[in-house]
Amino acid sequence: MEFTINQVAELLEGRVEGNGEEKVYTIKGIEEGTKGSISFLSNPKYEPFIYETDSSAVIVKDDFKPKKEVNTTLIFVDDPYTRFTTLLEQIQKMIRPVKSGVESPSFICDSSQVGENIYRGAFSYIGERCKIGNNVKIYPNSYIGDDCVVGDNTVIYSGVKIYGRCQIGSQCTIHSGAVIGSDGFGFAPQEDGTYKTIPQLGNVIIEDNVDIGANTVLDRATFDSTIVKSGVKLDNLIQIAHNVVVGKNTVIASQAGISGSTKVGENCVIAGQAGIIGHLKIADKTTIAAQSGITKSIKEKGTTMLGSPAIDIRNFRQSFIYFKKLPELAERITKLEKKD
Length: 340
Fold this sequence. Notes:
Residues 24-89 form the UDP-3-O-[3-hydroxymyristoyl] glucosamine N-acyltransferase non-repeat region domain. The chain is α/β, with parallel strands linked by helices. It contains five helices and 40 strands. It is 16% helix and 30% strand. Strand 5 (37-40), helix 2 (47-50) and strand 6 form a beta-alpha-beta unit. It is flat and about 80 Å long.
């Protein structure tokens, strides 16, 4: 990779202030920038670094006004974070060539249909009566069970397991180790203390433009479907239980878990290690802070929850003031009791 700063600016539809002919050949954070690297500034708290960075160029917002002298070339754009993502996408195309063709050995049942420009990696398996769209990439050692559907331009990385009758939309990315459609956790307690397995007869439906991280698991429904709606982004190591519905454009961070039959709204943010019990409804635009435990439905849109069991973040912060003072308060109470 080697570009002039002017070439980068043209790609990003930006405006250059400084030496546009200088070449850049690597990407680094603004704190670690070196000559020949390009960085970006999106979060205001990192602004102090722009005055001392050694990066040859920094992508900034078009209304950015330096408070003192800047020794780097600036590229002004409408949205630094999004434009920087565009740059990363172009570099990815250069360093990660697009796979195509069919490697050997790989297997597909005669009853299945595949679209054009397919990549099937070595030791991949496609079962009976599957429908695979155009430009789909199936990397080595991946498994697609019977009666599955995979939409156009979806990428299934190595070691992904998709159980039978599941549906994957278009423009999705599923990372290594993910399991789609494993049995939901359904066991009926018996009088003798044992458990009888409840057959899980549903499936998983993943709509378009969904990203699923490594080693994330989505269980099939007991009946009907577990549904992940369009635009959802799932981190690594997430558990989505049977009959859960995750609304459009919701993002969920690592190690979060959602129990069975819970309905999560649109544009929610669920932070790392958060847990939600079953059969709840989570309103649109809810934010659930890290390690929070949700035990009741959230009905009001735009609520932020924190704690375990979680409460509204404003109440949590007020309560925490008193919590920190508990040792002092306990000591005062003890002294008062002694006086009595």
